[in-house]
Amino acid sequence: MLDDFLVRAGLGGLGVALAAAPLGCFVVWRRMAYFGEATAHGAMLGVALSLAFEQSIFIGPLIVAVLMAWTVSLFSQRNYATDTILGVFAHSALALGLVVVSFISGVRIDLMAYLFGDILAVSGSDLAIIWGGVVLICGLMAWRWTPLLLATLNEELAYAAGIKPKREQLILTLSLGITVAVSIKVVGILLIAAMLIIPAAAARQLARTPEGMVAITAVVGCISVIAGLNAAFHFDTPTAPTIVCVSLIAFILLFVMNANTNSKAKGKS
Amino acid sequence: MNLISLKKVTVAYGNSTVLRNVDLNLNSGEIVTIVGPNGSGKTTLLRAIIGSVQPKTGTITLKPGLKIGYVPQRLNFDRTLPLTVQRFLSLSDPVSRDMCIHALQRAGVPQLLKEQMSDISGGQFQRVLLARALLGQPEVLILDEATQGLDQPGSAAFYRQIETVRNETGCAVLMISHDLHVVMSASDQVICLNGHVCCAGTPSAVLSTPEYRELFGTGTGGALALYRHDHDHVHEHDSSGAEAVT
What we know:
The complex is a heterodimer of chains A (269) and B (246). Chain A is mainly α. Helix content of chain A is 81%, strand content 0%. The relative contact order of chain A is 0.17. With 246 residues, chain B is an alpha/beta fold. Chain B has helices spanning 42-50, 85-89, 97-106, 122-134, 152-169, 180-184, 203-208, 210-216, 222-228, 240-243, and strands at residues 2-13, 16-27, 31-35, 57-62, 68-71, 140-144, 172-176, 189-193, 197-201. Chain B has a six-stranded mixed beta sheet with strand order 5-6-7-3-8-9, sandwiched between helices. Chain B has a three-stranded antiparallel beta sheet with strand order 2-1-4. In chain B, strand 8 (189-193) and strand 9 (197-201) form a beta hairpin. Classes of the chains: A mainly alpha (269), B alpha/beta (246). The A-B interface holds A 28-29, 31, 146, 149-150, 152-154, 156-157, 160-161, 204, 207-210, 212-213 and B 70, 72, 75-78, 80-84, 87, 91-92, 116.
């Protein structure tokens, strides 16, 4: 069954959707959308370093993501807003990555595959790494779920419960790095943030509890992947952008549905 | 039996002394209110009792194994995070639905169980925080300006609720407030703080002290004078260092 490239593509996409579900929710709750974007862009430098040192393309982005988080927290204490620092380093990392790649001779590098993903070329070993990442992230999230939620909700409450918000932030950053690293092959650097944010934003419309929101996000993400793959196959469109377009449709549908139920509820009372 | 006992407690941040020689006793079932202007060391006093600040000199004694329920100042909750009241109450420790309902009843808001935290009013929000503190079945409730942002009727209703909780559960209450006139009627003991204890006692005893007259003015008498007092007097120590801390 794994011999079929469409099956491998589907499994890879589902893995990314599942890994992105809890992370995407935290990105939405903590207003880290730009941070997610920056981590993803920084991954280009990671990819370049991986290629230069002939390492797996999962290692470089992970290291760059952690370095990025550390740099941002270092600089944001010194007269700069976080988004300014992110703007400086995210785009620099992307540019630097593209420059470094141009120095690597001998290997023919398909830049488009890294920028927009190449889901149809997902191999068996890619699948192993992607699903390994999914298990790792779900494990981390399950282990730190309550402290993460409390730290997200209110730092004061977290301190009162003996939780260190800074440490929880680090765990989130690490998980984000892992998510970005396993998503590059499937959706590409430029669309990872979309996979993080759009399904979670769509799920916010229906969710009543944090756990419910993660579950709905996972469902929206998985449906987007499967429907997007099918649509791309049918209409002969680029796969990753098609998946993102489907999740946008889901977002709009849920938004309109929710607006309708809300106005009906108001009409009754 | 003293639940909390402070003897000659002095707290300093760096070189600035925030609290000087503060004595305080909290007995079971008693409601003690601390009043004082900004920078008078009210929050520092609570921090010292909770243990997040160490006194420079003096002793703080808590009854061994004392269970404290803490109600913070108004918190900011973001609409981006969906959260029902029930889920909020069971956030740090898992508690049953029945326990949630019971705690909400005690706090006077049993109807809120299924509501979203972001949809309830400021007054309801403080009651949910109170319910959260009550879930741990505390022997002492500590409230840090719990009615900040509420209007006078809202604050008054909240403090009546605190009194009801005390009468029903027998827990002691230690609270900070700037709604002086609102708090007075519910308190067994009032401590007026301005770096040191200016005056202390039952509300009526405090009313008749010369220190009180000096602090709160004599013109209007009673609650209104208390409400209007603005601590523009100067004490023998320098309180300007304390200003920056709280």
